[in-house]
Write a structure and sequence with these properties.
The chain has 183 residues and is α+β, with helices and mostly antiparallel strands. It has one domain: Aminopeptidase, CATH 3.40.630. Helices cover 31% and strands 36% of the residues. It is globular.
Length: 183
């Protein structure tokens, strides 16, 4: 897969040197608050995860998120298209912006928009969905800006930080993506 460029971000293949930052991020309670992760991960865990990437369908391998930094690029997170169903033409998206210094600057919205474009215009999907915790207002705002609509709620479907939280299901259809592009 080629590098996917946006205005301020690019999505590229995950490299071994990314793993060290990923491990730091997935062990930071602030970063994982909105993720399904809740146990610490060792460097060996992350190395095994990286080694397993080659066994995955190339369309479902995670991508590193980088932002323009002077003449170069700086790693800020990762994202993925997963649970691809080629019969129904659907998939799910996931994102982690691990670099907290760039939170609330619109990078999540831009990444999700790039993933939608990739899903609809490259993979020819019809439906792209995601799951987000109800308490994660920042992520929900980014997803709505990218075009996602709430389609359902799994009540108290997650237990984290000593309490239950709803999981909100959101999606975008190819017809909605096309209408949004035209306007």
């Amino acid at each position: 897969m080629s590098i996917i460029y946006g205005e301020r971000v690019r999505l590229r293949a995950v490299e071994r040197e990314d793993v060290r930052k990923f491990q730091a991020w997935v062990n930071d309670p602030e970063v994982t608050r909105g993720l399904s992760l809740y146990l610490p991960l060792s460097s060996l865990d992350e190395e095994k995860w990286f080694e397993g990437l080659q066994n995955r369908d190339p369309h479902q391998r995670p991508m590193s998120i980088e932002i323009k930094d002077g003449d170069g690029w700086t790693l800020i997170g990762n994202c993925a298209v997963f649970d691809l169903d080629w019969v129904v033409r659907s998939a799910e998206l996931g994102i982690m912006i691990g670099e907290k210094s760039v939170w609330n600057q619109g990078y999540g919205t831009e990444v999700m928009t790039l993933l939608l474009k990739h899903g609809f215009e490259t993979l020819n999907l019809n439906r792209i969905c995601l799951r987000v915790y109800a308490e994660n207002a920042r992520a929900r705002r980014a997803y709505v800006k990218a075009g996602f609509v709430e389609e359902g709620r799994l009540r108290q479907a997650m237990f984290k930080h000593g309490r239950y939280d709803d999981v909100i299901l959101m999606s975008v259809l190819a017809s909605e993506w096309a209408a949004r592009k035209e306007s």
